[in-house]
Amino acid sequence: MSLSASPEARWTSVGLTEEEYREIVRRLGREPNDVELGLFGVMWSEHCSYKSSRKLLKILPSAGERVRLGPGENAGVLDIGGGWAVALRIESHNHPSAVEPYQGAATGVGGIVRDILSTGARPVALLDALSFGLPDSPRDRALLRGIVEGIGGYGNCLGVPTVGGETVFHSGYDGQPLVNVMCVGLVRLERLVRGRAEGEGNVLMLVGARTGRDGIHGASLLASRGLSEGGEDKRPAVQVGDPFIGKRLIEACAELVEAGWVAGLTDLGAAGLTSAAAEAAGRAGRGVVLELDRVPLREDGMTPYEIMLSESQERMLIIATPEGAGRVEAACRRWGLEAAAVGRVTGDGYLRVRWRGREVAAVPVRDLTEAAPAYERPWRAPAPVTPEPGRGVAAGPSRGGAAAPSHGGAPRPADPSEAFLDFLSSVHVASRAPVYRRYDHEVQTNTVLRPGHDAAVIRVRGTRKGLALATDGAGRWGGLDPYYAGAIAVAEAARNVSCVGAEPIGLTDCLNFGNPEDPHVMWQFRRALEGIRDACLALGIPVTGGNVSFYNETDGRQIPPTPVVGMVGLIEDIERLVPSSPRCPGALWLLGGGAVSQEGSLWQMWREGRVHGQCPPLDLSLEAAVQALVREAAGHGWIRAAHDVSDGGLLVAAAEMALSPEIPWGLRLQLPEAGDAWTAAYGEGGARVLVVPAGPEAERALMRRAEERAVPCREVGRLTEDGRVIVKSGRDAWVDVAAERAARAWKEGWAWLL
Amino acid sequence: MRLGVVIFPGSNCDRDALAAAEIAGYEAVPLWHGESAVEGVDAIILPGGFSYGDALRAGALAATAPVMAGVRRFAARGGAVLGICNGFQILCEAGLLPGALTRNRDLAFHCHDVALTVVTARTPWTRALAPGERLVLPVAHGEGRYVVPPEELDRLEAQDQIVFRYEDNFNGSCGAVAGVCNRAGNVVGMMPHPERRVEAVLGGEAGLGVFRSLRLAAAGVTRP
Fold first, then answer.
1. What average pLDDT score do residues B76-81 get?
2. A12 Cβ neighbours under 8 A, 6+ residues apart
3. Is the pLDDT reported for residue A548 higher than 50?
4. In whole angstroms, what is the distance from residue A433 CA to residue A425 CA?
5. What is the pTM for the complete model shown?
6. How many other C-beta atoms can be found within 10 angstroms of the C-beta atom of residue A557?
7. What is the Cα–Cα distance from A530 to A502, expressed in whole angstroms?
8. What would you report as the CA-atom Rg of chain A, rounded to the nearest whole angstrom?
9. Cβ pair B13:A442 closer than 8 A
10. What residue segments make up the domains of chain B, in order of their start?
11. Contacts (Cβ under 8 Å, ≥6 apart) of A137
């Protein structure tokens, strides 16, 4: 990055505005030098400072009796009892993945893993919430393949199981995919570490990979701006990951934390050494002095500016006592990692940078961190939008020429059986096994429920406890009503973990939006936050932190507002967990209810290539009651399977329960007498869960508790052993196909994509 | 009995193998890649993972680590050695097992259950199993396609060195080989992960037989 002499070039070169530059001059009482300006550029970037969102994020409930670390830390930490705590965080890597899908996604995994490491926890699970454009262009398919490969390439090598997530398609993500990666770790409470530079005189040790010229201005120029067509020029701002170093960092950190030699720990992510040192000092109310001559470099001739802003991957900053520094170095050396003492903690509240015997930067830590600008961006509710013309959806090879969607408008569904098969095999509904089979989801041998259920469950070794993990994104609803999207993302993620029998205990959110300088985007953001807040309050779930990703725009085209929620549920006894498909057939009951509609549904998305209309009504108290009932039923062993009714509606949920076993069950489903069969089958809305009761006695108990909790509850069908899927509307068989054929449609629908 | 599990930098199933060995009733100890002495153990496991980040070729660098000198000596004395996944790759690279493991036929990483047929029970790691027995174990690898020249495959078959075969040869291995042993039978490599199936809560105990075999072998139990 060359800094030209012209005044305007000074601030634009580091991604700041003129006002921000003037503010820096005012605070310092002088012009910043080039190094200092670089520090402000990255630390005041949207990505690091959350300047457009910081004030608004305060509305999210973050308190709870289990919360040990909340927002503002490297990761949230929840007490799960028995001396154990779970660390969780989700983060986006959208921009890098759009520019360079493999490395962008890979470093997304690496980055979030190091956030979890920063708490002293050992990473135990990864989840990926991915959103793609409709895969009808080679470019969008290439993005999909690159991103899936990048996640596997890094995560598999790292030895952290990738246990869940989701993959959605929507034309709003054409060319600008979302890659949101969640990591969960486990730590003994007494070993919990914080990203704080405590203790004057303590040593800052830079551990891991050497510092190179990669990723300079990744945070300020890549992640804090929109993309433009031909973003190839931004490729140098994408970092390259090395999971082999990442893996050794995990082991070295685990060893050091276990030995108690770490006073503070933080990762080097966006804005590299600058952000790690400044934030660690800021959290502790301290200062730091950095000696750049001691930073191990990948190449000669790097300037202080480059060293401070490098986003080279696989680096951690360990704060050690002077006596402990030698031990840290020895432990790292054992794992083949370099560890260099690059600075120390001071008491003056300044970030000072020394290089070749002189001070090249001196900036108050506060001005880089908590006192960075925070804006109340103008916001405006949108005028009613004219829907854009529909477009076709690549649904894979169509069978029977039935209701295969075509370009330009919605064909009337032809034969319901053929339409059912086509929908099942569409990219929107088909089994995600082709994706998760690319990821090692069993390493560490704790995965009790593997991908493919409502939530993955990993056990806490040495206890009876399990963690249920799920992500849920709501971009499809975001364009219709961001408030509903925020609320339903929380509700459905909580419903997912409840379905396996776990109590949702905390969530981390990843908020993907367009350009915050656009008042409509800011309105979307505020509404989504309000939705998240209201759902969290209704369900009693704290937000432990997360990530905001703005500027998801390409040439002014904004993504649909996409709140993504990563949920952690706690299950006290893993013997009590409930899969989403039963081991033996039985009755199928629907718990809950609410109005359903085709508007905004996946069915509408598939048939028309877009969604439009109104979101269904939200009933958060019914939601809470349904989830509590499912958990109670699981705890008592009243149900053998539970599956959330959401994407694709009632029929898709029932079909997934029937078709996911190796040898599929047959299915009988009775649609309600009244109303349109298509809406009853595929409409979405309400708070609904399908369960398979464990027998007549369990049915009676379930019925009684449902009444007491005022949750509607009725038998809607059964899983059978006769190999047929028969859906009745009134007395007529509306869909009638062989289960084997339906299973093939669902399981092989994706084969052409990856 | 005491079982040693080698930890290379980048091993990631080392802790799983240690835990599985303990569940199977053995004492389990880690062996460090930098130490060439591997004394005091009755059997050795080279675990799965990405030793040295798969640099050069999977297993290529680990095959030259100091600990491998000890593993060689141990194997030469007839000690029981099992390489799982990356461990199998390392044993092939080290020349302790015939053949090589190359990228899967479809060039993709595969993580799912596979059905295996036990071919021989003569090794210390299959003594508790019966030839023809069907085992379902998970695989998790991108480079598990076993390759040997056709005449070598014939020789392996003739010498009873094929240990496991895939029922569905998803990765394109020569002869659908999922596991092989050396001529003497004491060194075994397999791509599937028996250590991931030793507890009912994790989906079954199909892998326990591999671990239990050791005890039978030590007691001198042989099967026809």
1. 97
2. none
3. yes
4. 13
5. 0.94
6. 14
7. 25
8. 26
9. no
10. 2-218
11. A174
Distance CA A539, CA A723 (A): 39
Q: Model ipTM?
A: 0.96
B131 at interface of A, judged by CB pairs closer than 8 A: no
Fold of the domain spanning B2-218: Rossmann fold (3.40.50)
Which of A247, A461, A574 comes nearest B12 by C-beta?
A247
Angle of helix A243-259 relative to helix A101-117, nearest 10 degrees? Answer: 0
Least confident of A226-235, A597-606, B170-179: A226-235
Q: Give me the percent of chain A exceeding a pLDDT of 90.
A: 85
Q: Are A316 and A45 in contact (CB under 8 A)?
A: no
CA A277-A280-A286 angle, 5° bins: 95
Q: Which domains does chain A have, with CATH numbers?
A: 33-368 (3.90.650.10), 411-747 (3.30.1330.10)
- B53 contacts A441? CB cut-off 8 A: no
Helix (H) or strand (E) holding B3: strand B2-7
Chain B partners within 8 Å of A440 (Cβ)? 109, 111, 140
Q: Which residues lie closer than 8 Å to A662 by C-beta, 6 or more apart?
A: none
DSSP string, A176-216: --EEEEEEEEEEEGGG---S---STTPEEEEEESPB-STTT
On chain B, the residues whose CB falls within 8 A of the CB of A459 are: 201
Residues of B in contact with A449 (CB under 8 A): none
Check A244 against B9: CB less than 8 A apart: yes
Which of B11, B12, B103 should one mutate to test binding to chain A, selecting the residue with the greatest count of A CBs within 10 A?
B12
Write out the two tokens for A263: 């006073």
- Which chain A positions have a beta carbon within 8 Å of B53's beta carbon? 157, 242-245, 247
Tens digit of each residue's pLDDT (9 = 90 or more) over B97-134: 999 999 999 999 999 999 999 999 999 999 999 999 99
Cα–Cα distance measured from residue A350 to residue A34, given in angstroms and rounded to the nearest whole number: 17
> Least CB-CB distance to A335: which of B9, B15, B193?
B9
Count of C-beta atoms within a 10 Å radius of residue A724: 16
Catalytic positions of B are 85, 193, 195
- Asked whether the predicted pLDDT for residue A399 surpasses 90, the reply is no
For residue A507, the Cα-to-chain-centroid distance in whole angstroms is 10
CB contact under 8 A, B140 and A156: yes
Q: Give pLDDT tens digits for A95-108.
A: 999 999 999 999 99
